[in-house]
Design goal:
By secondary structure, the chain is α/β, with parallel strands linked by helices. It is 44% helix and 18% strand.
């Protein structure tokens, strides 16, 4: 048995197995060893802080690129690694969110006085604050490149981050050689693939089981009505999804602010309707939520009339975001779906939402994996 001091990721994994939250999987166990190696190397290369500034190690620690099919536990393993890293100079973010931030930073720099200088380097401008922050490990979920703007930027961006001592730990559904496959001017992207292989250990997660699908196999994911029986059914569904883990509060970072999440556990989140649809949230917020969790439990969806017009609009946006991503939804509704209702302003959109809600409880939808797409919301 691995000890928590020498192999903290493996120890955390073993604890979940002991509690019955996970079924032991040899491929996942092997991956914990790779993650513990990265963590041990980071701790051995701990930078010193002189005069308030970080003095980085001469060379970045070699990171990890963990790839495998959907539902094999990559996100769960990243959770364990991130929680085990005993220093604050770490960041975890979805790959596309990170690239959105980079592009926004480049655009802002180009509009600045300094950015109009012919010799100005916008990539240097966006990486400098990251390096000054002392960031030691960048954890990127779902590394997948479709967009040419990202493809042409990645080599320069990560060359500077790696040179500055940042270690990359990434998860992906594809091998490095499969990134930006058949993309326009792909030959210009190939140096980044070589760099990625040099700066990370590429590891496969060849599990034969899609654990995400098992959570929902044969389940009735919707409950209707109100009262203790409905609440008990949702509690039971939550524990099934999380493997018996009750969860704890969490947050979703979105556009520089934090969205509270009442319960988070094992890649799933639990919200009340009011938490999402009666708060000032928009499409980008719901896209962030859809990218952060593979499963959502939503309690107390009410019947919506004209007095709940704003909440109905947010509910429509929420369901669109979850559906487009392929997130699994378990929910309790005060009334049957066809009676949820909407006012005249949202009637047409609400019909599409009802159609999607109907599909989202089907076995066909529940058996599908998450959809990998690059959100394009403003």
């Amino acid at each position: 048995m691995a000890t928590s001091t020498s192999s903290p990721v493996r120890a955390a994994y073993d604890e979940l197995v002991a509690r019955g939250a996970l079924t032991p999987d040899p491929a996942q166990v092997a991956a914990t060893g790779e993650l513990d190696r990265v963590l041990a190397d980071l701790l051995a290369a701990k930078p010193k802080k002189l005069f308030g500034l970080f003095e980085r190690p001469a060379e970045a620690v070699r990171g990890l690129y963990l790839h495998g099919e959907v539902g094999r536990g990559k996100t769960m393993l990243m959770d364990l690694f991130y929680a085990a890293a005993p220093f604050p100079e770490k960041r975890r973010v979805h790959f596309h969110e990170f690239m959105d931030e980079v592009h926004a930073g480049i655009a802002a720099f180009r509009k600045s006085v300094r950015g109009k200088d012919e010799d100005a380097d916008p990539v240097e401008a966006v990486t400098k604050p990251i390096l000054r922050s002392g960031l030691r490990v960048l954890c990127l979920d779902e590394f997948h490149v479709h967009d040419i703007a990202n493809a042409m930027l990645l080599d320069r961006l990560f060359s500077k981050l790696f040179a500055g001592g940042v270690t990359l730990v990434a998860t992906s559904n594809v091998v490095p050689d499969g990134l930006y496959k058949d993309g326009l001017n792909r030959q210009l992207f190939l140096p980044f693939i070589a760099l990625l292989k040099e700066k990370t250990v590429v590891a496969d997660l060849p599990s034969s089981q899609d654990y995400r699908r098992l959570k929902f196999a044969g389940q009735h994911v919707y409950a209707f009505g109100t009262g203790p029986d409905v609440r008990a059914a949702m509690d039971q569904m939550w524990l099934r999804i999380t493997g018996g883990e009750r969860g704890a509060p969490g947050i979703v970072e979105s556009i520089g602010r934090q969205i509270p999440v009442p319960l988070v556990a094992m890649g799933a989140a639990r919200f009340g309707f009011a938490d999402l649809c009666e708060k000032p949230l928009g499409t980008r917020d719901f896209v962030r939520i859809a990218h952060q969790f593979d499963s959502i439990v939503l309690d107390n969806v009410p019947q919506m009339d004209r007095t709940k017009s704003d909440a109905a609009k947010r509910f429509i946006l929420l369901i669109d975001s979850l559906y487009d991503r392929g997130v699994k939804l378990a929910a309790s509704f005060a009334v049957p779906l066809e009676q949820l209702g909407a006012d005249d302003k949202t009637a047409f959109e609400f019909q599409r939402t009802l159609s999607r809600l109907t599909e989202m409880q089907s076995e066909e939808y529940l058996q599908k994996g998450l959809r990998d797409f690059e959100p394009s919301v403003g």
